[in-house]
Sequence to fold (324 residues):
Amino acid sequence: MQPTLNPKGRRAGARDWVLVEKWSVKILHAPRRGDVIVMWAPDAPHQQIVKRLIALEGDTLAVPHPARPGGTVAAIPEGRCWVEGDNASESLDSRSAYGPVHMGLLEGRVTHVVWPPGRVGRVASVCPPGRILHTAAADEAAAAEAA
Amino acid sequence: MGWWAAAAAGAAAGKGGQGTAATLRKWTARGAKTAAVLHVTFNYVAFFSQINGPSMFPTFSGRGWNVVVAEALPGMQDRVAAGDVVICIRPVNARENVIKRVTAVAGQRVTLFTRGGGAPTTLEVPTGHIWLQGDNLIMSRDSREYGPVPLAMVKGRVVCQILPNYKWVPPRLPGQP
Fold:
């Protein structure tokens, strides 16, 4: 998640400690695109990972691809979402390893950095521009208008 | 004397001797303690679950009262084995849970027969995942539809049924008696 979290690397002492809010994910089940989230790694039931939520179920998104200049397009199936690390080249995420991941793996939303003291502050929700091509909500609205 | 009797006695004493604020404080503390104990029990020890729907017939009827006891598996999801009945977050909707039988664990191979007589496909269950199926194969939406499920989504393993009748729920693989 560099440069958003752990900007000085993963050495002990340089790592960030964050505050994780579970209410919006585990109770309301309403995570938003752009949030930094904590989730269980799909391939390791004992490991939690921190990623940015890019797309939700029903979305169609553009995925950059190293071999293809235009990238590829992914549709997110029911009950899944798309997560990516901010440090694209070194992140194991939906783009490089997992594909769309289950929403049930999400544990919470990272709201603040609480340690070290120099880095205390809010963690912003940022949607990378131009990635979402359609959303299910927009498609439904268009269908309602047509009908 | 149980805790409820002590609580009732405390309330009576509060009415007589102490002010409203003290009584309120005492009851808030008791409520918080009770909630904490229940939270720990249901999330880390065992919990009850009501089954609706026919997907686990004939193991569970899915009609009327069908209550099972499941042991919670905090951080021990990788102890589930093929044949166990588990309660798991529904892969297509994280707000709901499903009850299914584990028919294969990571590393085992699964053969899928497609409707309409197409060629069967074989796949290996990936690391950290399990394959779930209902006992009622013709009325169950399970891994045949949504694929392997990550172990982190398993909430607990079903131990026994308590309503409408008491019975153990032993591990069993399809085709076994």
Remarks:
- Chain A touches chain B at residues 29, 40-46, 77-79, 102-106 (CB under 8 Å).
